[in-house]
Amino acid sequence: MSHYEQRLQNDLDTIRTDITTLGSTVHQALTHALDSLLNRESDLAYQVILGDHPINRTADRLNIACHGFIAKHLPSAGHLRFVSSSLRTIILLERLGDYAATIAKESVRLKYELEGAFKTDVQVMGYDALGMLSDAVAAYEAMDAELAAETKSAASKIDREFITAYSDLVVADGNDLQRGDLFGRLNIINLLERVSDQAKNLCEEVIFTKTGKTKKRRRLTLFFLDEQDASNTIEKSKTQVLIF
Fold it and tell me: What is the pLDDT of residues 29-52, one digit of tens each?
């Protein structure tokens, strides 16, 4: 390996290691946010909230490092896929840090602690989402496309858990909670579902980096009706579009 190739590889390894470290930091923040919610630990919640600023600064530093890598090495092919994927990964990890801070804020705002079936739903959903994120970060660290493909399939399970949690919240607790607590709980389970979505996105980035394959675009069917909303025009006006 030439001196230039060694230097390029060292720069790649540094970026991957730093992003993996950021992923672990974000995972810890989300874990603490969930624990503060389930155990009503306000000190831990405030620690998560304050910890969001260092996460943002690290994300900014890594963003600069990736752009510096492009300017320095003018990468192509696999190296370019890696750095472009890493830039998107930094953004999603920063968002996950924001999710942790928001969950922590909701945990100290709630007037009443979680209890009953809904608390169990949040605990199961939260730790499943955290487990998925942990596997996604591990897949990124090892650049393991097989692990990434296996991990992203867990998102559908967490989607089902969200539906269960939402049903228990609305049916069992909807009439007993004040508006602030009700919407706070809804925001929490929505964010936990988003954690799994971002973990799935991270897996997609790993697969793209290793194979060059991009995720399939969703195809939606749209119906265009006339001014009278006439149903007999539906089949004639139906079209499909790709969502990018």
Answer: 999 999 999 999 999 999 999 999
Distance CA 71, CA 11 (A): 12
Q: What residue ranges define each of the domains in the chain, with the CATH number in brackets?
A: 3-213 (1.20.58.220), 216-244 (no CATH)
Query: Would you say 106 and 40 are in contact if contact means Cβ atoms under 8 Å apart?
Result: no
Is residue 157 within 8 Å of residue 224, measured between CB atoms? no
pTM of the model: 0.85
The alpha carbon torsion through 146, 148, 151, 156 (nearest 10 deg) reads: -110
Over the stretch 187-211, which tens digit does the pLDDT of each residue have? 999 999 999 999 999 999 999 998 8
